[in-house]
Amino acid sequence: MSKSFLAVGECMVEMAPTAEGTYSMGFAGDTLNTAWYARRALPDSWTVSYLTGVGRDQISDQMLEFLKSSNINTDQIRKLDDRTVGLYMIQLKDGERSFAYWRSQSAARCLASDPEHLARAFGNAGLIYFSGITLAILSAKDRSAFMDALKSARVSGSKVAFDPNLRPRLWENLETMRSVVTEAAGHCDFVMPSFEDELEHFGDATPKDSAERYLAAGADMVVVKNGPEDVVCARRGEHQSYTPQPVGSIVDTTAAGDSFNAAFLADYLISQDVASSVEAGAKLAATVIQHRGALVKILEPA
Ligand code: ADP
Asked: Which PANTHER family match (predicted)?
C-alpha cells in the first residue's frame, strides 16, 4: 500500500471569540482536524495530504500556508478563480457556543467537479478519508463522480474510510442525507460513525444496530464511537466492544471523533490490530477533550 493518507473535505476560516471581546482567526473543519492529527500519529515515512478547494486570494493563501506549516501536503488542492474559502464564527452566550456559517459558495464545494483531477488525487492514495460533510457540500453530479472515483481507487488498492458526521442542515433533505450516506458506506473499508448522530437521524436503538446497518450497506468494518461508552467494532459476523478509559475533567469535546478516527486509522494501517487501534483512538481523543479547541498540540508532527 502506498504510504499516503489523503483527507478530503472543507477547511474553513474560524473566528473564535477572545476574552477581550475581539475574535481570533484560525482554520478548522472535521476532515482537516483528522488530517492534522493523522500527520502527528503516522510515522514520517507517510505523506498526509488534504484535498479541498480554495480561491486565489490572500485568505486562501493563508490557509495553504497553515496546512504547509502543519506538514500537510497541499499539492492536490484545487484553486478556483472566482471563489474563496468558507468561514464560521463561534458566538458565546451564557457559556453556550453557537455557530454562524458563511460557506454556501465556498471553493470547497468544487473539490470534486473535475473527475480527472479526482482520479489523479485518489490514484496515489493508500487511504482516502472523507466525511458526510464532504458529501453534503457537493452537487448531486459531483457526489456521483466522487463515488465513482472511490470505486476505481479501491480497485487499484486504496483503502477508504468515512465518518458519516450527519449534519442535516447541510443537506437538501433528510432522505437524501440518509441515502447518500448509505451508498457511500458501501464503498468503504472503514465506516466510523458516532452513535449519537445515528440514533437521532437513522433511529438505531443500539451502536450494534448502527454497525449492522452499515455492514448491510456494504462496509467492510464499522467502528461506532459513543462518547464515554463502549466503542463497538464490527465486521461481518463479528462484534467486539472496547471501553474507553474514563476521563476526569472534560474541557471541550470539539474534535473528539475526528481525533479518534485519525489515531485509530494511523494505528490500524500499520498494526492491523483492532484492539490496539481503538486504544490509540480513545487515548488521543481523551487528551483532546481535556484541552480547549479542535487542534491540540499534544504530539509533534512527524
Ligand atoms: P464525536 O466528536 O464525533 O461526537 P464521540 O463523542 O462519540 O465523538 O467521541 C469519540 C471518542 O472520544 C469516543 O469513542 C471516546 O474514545 C472519546 N470520548 C468522548 N467523550 C468521552 C468521555 N466523556 N470520556 C471518555 N472518552 C470520551
From this structure: 2-DEHYDRO-3-DEOXYGLUCONOKINASE (PTHR43085:SF15), HEXOKINASE FAMILY MEMBER (PTHR43085)
Dump pLDDT digits (tens) for 227-283.
Answer: 999 999 999 989 999 999 999 889 888 899 999 999 999 999 999 999 999 999 999
Handedness of CA 264, 265, 271, 272 (dihedral sign): positive
CA 222/CA 215 separation, integer angstroms: 7
Residue owning the nearest CA to atom 5 of ligand 1: 227
Domain of 198 in residue numbering reads as 4-11+29-54+108-288
| 139 part of a folded domain | yes
Ligand 1 centre to CA of 298 (Å) is 17
For ligand 1, pick from 222, 253, 279, 290 the residue to mutate: most ligand atoms within 8 Å of CB: 253
**pLDDT tens figures, 62-119:** 999 999 999 999 999 999 999 999 999 998 888 788 999 999 999 999 999 999 999 9
Ligand 1 pocket: which of 131, 133, 194, 242 to mutate (most atoms within 8 A of CB): 194
Q: How many domains does the chain have?
A: 1
Which of the following is catalytic: 163, 197, 204, 258? 258
Please confirm, yes or no, whether 258 is among the known catalytic residues.
yes
Residue 225 C-alpha to ligand 1 middle, in angstroms?
7
Task: State the pairing for strand pair 23-28/12-17.
Answer: antiparallel
How far is ligand 1, taken at its centre, from the CA of residue 226, in Å?
Answer: 6
d(CA 58, CA 40): 27
